[in-house]
Fold DUF1573 domain-containing protein.
Amino acid sequence: MSSADRDGTGRRLLASLSLCAILIGCKRGGSSQEPAPLLDTTSRDLGAIRLDADYESTFRISNTTDAPITITRIRSSCGCVAAGFDPAPIPPGQQREITLKLNTHGQTVLGPIVKHATIEFESGPPVQLELRARLDSDFEIEPRRVEFSADERSHEIRLTRRQLDSTSFAKLVLVGNADCYDVAEDSGKQTADLRVFRVTMKEASAGATLPELYFSDSASGRPLPFATVTCSRKGPTLRPSSFTVNARAGAPPKAAVRFRFVDFQSQPMRMVSVQPFDELSKRLLVIGFDPERDAKSFTLALAENSDLPDETLTRLMVSVDFTSLDQRTSGRLLLPCFLLGTGKSEKAEATTPPAAESAN
């Protein structure tokens, strides 16, 4: 080995040892010590950040050794963090910037977040960088969950602006299934940072769960992130809570389905009437309901030779009226039934089997 080669090898060995000493000293120093001489800092706090946005932070690395330092790669803790750096060796006494880019697209949890990236060198131990932030929603919704009942058919939903600009905030729409809810905004309570909505449940559905309410940027738009309100209904219900019939020509015989009236209230309830909700719904037959002998169950089946509408999917409804034993409390459930057809000019060859299928 020539003297020049020995000198080069010695310088690289010295740089490696110096880098190890710097990084080990940083690690031993703990969080209360000053940042390592190699980096201006190993942690950045981005503060409050928004959903579906991009952020970046810069770290400065200084070569305080006597030989070049080479970064071989930077590994991130997740796909939402990307690192940018110049892979060329850093000469002694020079500085280089490392950029960490954070995107919040598709985040599913609000609150504090911590992301990491690990710098790996040609020689010496790795160094871990840290990005901290607090992911906040553009607005707050209160409450996030509402429960309707026969006695409490209306709820107030409050929308408070946080990071969203005032123009976009004013355009937000509370969307609810028109078959289930009436939604109206209370303009008398509105301010620049607050909007109040009144949601009223229409005729109670047969199930204990109801469609979600959600905020969107238009009446036909999709739900915005973290912008849904979960809805439920307490009181009597039906099991199962819906009915689907395949009425296509050539389909196998249709099984009738038995429904049970389930009462979760302390005051006993009973069904007094089960009937198709409208003329279209008369394609359904109500079988085995006797309010005097069995006010807790009934069976539904598709009428034979039902003329099918043009639509491939028809929504039918059955109205179920109930009352308390002392007749002081009464109400109505609407049971949705879905008829799968093939269009006009075809008829279903529906039959009603002698045995009914029990509800789950």
Observations:
- Residues 46 and 82 are 15 Å apart (CA to CA).
